[in-house]
Amino acid sequence: MPSSPTFRLEVLGFSVLEEIEGSWTEHDFKKLLSGLQFDDLAGLDEAELREMCVLALSDLKPAAAAALLLQQRLSDALTSGQIQNTSQEMLDEKLWEEYADMPLHERFFHVGSLLYQAFPKIVPIPDAVKIRVQITAEGSEGVRLLSAPLHESLLVRLLADGMPDSAPLNRLFGDAVGGKSFPEAESIVWIVKSSPIEGSSLEFEVTGSGYWLDGLRETKSYASSARPDAVRPR
After folding, report:
1. Mean pLDDT value of segment 32-58
2. Which residues does 206 contact at the CB level (< 8 Å), separation at least 6?
């Protein structure tokens, strides 16, 4: 049986994001504007298209604007009735934290980001978090785990170990953090980037909802013996 891995982690950066870079593209803006009967878009760059889109959305009622964005981003996952219901809920609720279907949270955040630009005094402020962390393995088992792509279950457990017990991640998912199966981890971390530094260290950057990741805001360094989900024998 392999020994327990030991890691040292150092939080290198913590930032709050109102929008995730690249989540809305020139193609997206043109599609939205086309749906709003704007046809003469030739020659406009992405910044100009964004400005036009925000202005066009702000001319609508907030719920109608939300429904339009939800239709573009979530029509494959929500029925028309669900879109109408959630378009009302988005005026008061952070559905990127609260919606029951966690795999949809990232897309709800993208909708909330653009909706906020059109209605900054009406809808909740988007609050994703980007965290940059350096991790160093101490021992052969930790080195082995870092040599493979970081599984979301390992990554979220590593982050949870740097948070207080009162943080929502530990309070609501304590059994999964301390257990062998954590399927929700894939929905907690939305974007993961990693790069080796040297020897037994690498740096990774995680973007996700502030609700789950804000517990690392004051953390500087800590130790962890986290593991990825156990692989069940076939």
Report:
1. 88
2. 130, 131, 133, 155, 159, 189, 191, 192, 213
> Looking up tokens 């493979």, which residue turns up?
148
Predicted TM-score (pTM) of this structure: 0.92
Question: Vertex 14, ends 9 and 16: CA angle to 5°?
Answer: 150
Is the C-alpha dihedral spanning 144, 175, 104, 93 positive or negative? negative
Structural domains present in the chain: 7-17+127-224 (3.30.70), 26-118 (no CATH)
**3-state secondary structure at position 114:** helix
CA dihedral defined by 66, 68, 72, 76, rounded to 10 degrees?
80
Among 129, 130, 109, 112, residue whose Cα is nearest residue 120: 112
Residue 192 CB-density burial (10 A; 0-12 exposed, 13-18 middle, 19+ buried): middle
- Confidence band, pLDDT 50/70/90 cuts, at residue 224: very high
- Three-state DSSP class for 102? helix
Residue 123 CB-density burial (10 A; 0-12 exposed, 13-18 middle, 19+ buried): buried
Is a pLDDT exceeding 60 seen at residue 196? Answer: yes
- CA-CA distance, 213 to 198, in Å (whole number)? 27
Residue 4's pLDDT is 67
- 194 and 204 Cβ atoms separated by less than 8 Å: yes
The SS3 assignment for 226 reads coil
Q: How open is the CA angle 212-214-168, to the nearest 5 degrees?
A: 45
